[in-house]
TrEMBL record:
Principal localisation: mitochondrion
Homology family: Belongs to the zinc-containing alcohol dehydrogenase family. Quinone oxidoreductase subfamily.
EC number(s) reported in the record: 1.3.1.104
Keyword Cytoplasm: no
Keywords, alphabetical: Fatty acid biosynthesis, Fatty acid metabolism, Lipid biosynthesis, Lipid metabolism, Mitochondrion, NADP, Oxidoreductase, Transit peptide
Subcellular location as annotated: Mitochondrion
SMART domains xref list: PKS_ER
GO molecular function, one term: enoyl-[acyl-carrier-protein] reductase (NADPH) activity
Name of the protein described by the UniProt record: Enoyl-[acyl-carrier-protein] reductase, mitochondrial
GO CC terms: mitochondrion
Entry keyword annotation includes Kinase: no
BP term (GO), one: fatty acid biosynthetic process
CDD domains per the UniProt record, alphabetical: ETR
């Protein structure tokens, strides 16, 4: 399997209706076109930051010629992730120059390769390597180094969603604290795509999970879905704060590791429920509230508080293709045998992107919106 990271190069395509410039260094967007020269393709473009459904427009672009080390990709499916929404709002850690094409994750199929391409072949399923890639389009031309292959026998939605959220879950479970069967991990935002991946990957490791979610309508159905994925315990934030929750720790050892994607009081409750010398990893801040750390957690309980960003992880291991290939291979292996399924999804036809964008920002929504090309 080729290394997962590489520097993509892009020759600008002729443009219609404004066009799209190259994005941030390392992974510029593709030339946006249909898989035949002289035709056009649909791209979801934003020229300013704001609420996603208001700033994203559909635009057509022409196909540039495929260079000798370039490939033509036909997109199959691409999710709308929280990071994509934050990027559209101008609230993410990296931003492409505007106008830009939305989307950082998705799966495509190779349609054509340049004369000197060696890493992929027509028919291969591929994922974009870097962030700020612009996957919300029907097709594009990019460097072969900007792609990594995945098995074609993966379920389509698994392939489209495997390289961001499951990768985040995998790294957090493997990189911070050595875990063995029987250990316990606690997490908030357990219904998120990362949370669902944590449940499944942890279960495959024999690691038990305590999963915290917000109270909501039809809570029972959500609890059933998470337990069907392998969740050992599912509690609301209110239940975790109650004295009755202490009964849980009579059944289980205290968690060695906690994952926080919410912040605020929810993060503080995680800190109060992990073992001495445990670790809390923050990878998101959905409440937009700061992480408040009790002094006693640091001084008396020796708790370690760290952060994780998948984009930074990829940058750090940019030259370690073997490490990254191993991670993706293990995730694909779990997906192929049904131990790692796609998150709860809602498939939306590409032309109905406005419906998907509006749904993606609604509260208490556990389903990830997937644009299907």
């Amino acid at each position: 399997m080729p290394g997962l990271l590489g520097v993509a190069t892009l020759r600008a395509a002729p443009r219609l209706g404004g066009g799209v410039r190259a994005a941030l260094g390392g992974s510029p967007p593709w030339g946006c076109n249909l898989p035949r020269r002289g035709h056009t393709a649909s791209c979801l473009v934003y020229a300013e930051h704001g609420e996603p459904a208001k700033v994203v427009k559909m635009e057509e672009q022409l196909l540039p010629p495929v260079g000798e080390r370039e490939v033509l990709i036909r997109m199959l499916a691409a999710p709308i992730n929280p990071a994509d929404i934050n990027m559209l709002q101008g609230k993410y850690g990296i931003q492409p120059p505007l106008p830009a094409i939305g989307g950082n994750e998705g799966v495509g199929q190779v349609e054509e390769v340049g004369s000197k391409v060696t890493k992929v072949k027509p028919g291969d399923w591929v994922l974009p390597v870097g962030s700020v890639f612009g996957t919300w389009r029907t097709a594009g031309v990019c460097s072969e180094d900007a792609m990594v292959t995945v098995p074609r026998d993966l379920p389509l939605l698994s392939a489209a969603t495997i390289h961001v959220n499951p990768a985040t879950a995998y790294c957090m479970l493997h990189d911070f604290t050595p875990l063995k069967p029987g250990d316990v991990v606690i997490q908030n935002g357990a219904n998120s795509a990362v949370g669902q991946a944590v449940i499944q990957i942890a279960a495959s490791m024999g690691v038990r999970t305590v999963n915290i979610v917000r109270d909501r309508p039809e809570l029972g159905k959500l609890v059933e879905k998470l337990k069907a994925m392998g969740a050992d315990f599912v509690l609301t934030e209110e239940e975790l704060r109650k004295v009755e929750a202490k009964e849980l720790w009579k059944k289980l050892p205290k968690p060695r590791l906690a994952f926080n994607c919410v912040g605020g009081k929810s993060a503080t409750e995680l800190l109060r429920n992990i073992e001495r010398s445990g670790t809390m990893v923050t990878y998101g801040g959905m409440s937009r509230q700061p992480v408040i750390i009790p002094t006693s957690a640091l001084i008396f309980n020796d708790i370690k508080v760290l952060g994780f960003w998948m984009t930074q992880w990829k940058r750090h291991y940019a030259q370690d293709g073997e490490r990254q290939a191993r991670m993706l291979s293990e995730l694909c292996s779990l997906a192929r045998v049904g131990k790692l399924t796609a998150p709860m999804c809602n498939e939306v036809p590409f032309h109905d992107f406005q419906v998907a964008l509006e749904a993606a920002v609604k509260p208490f929504l556990s389903e990830k919106q997937i644009l299907v090309m």
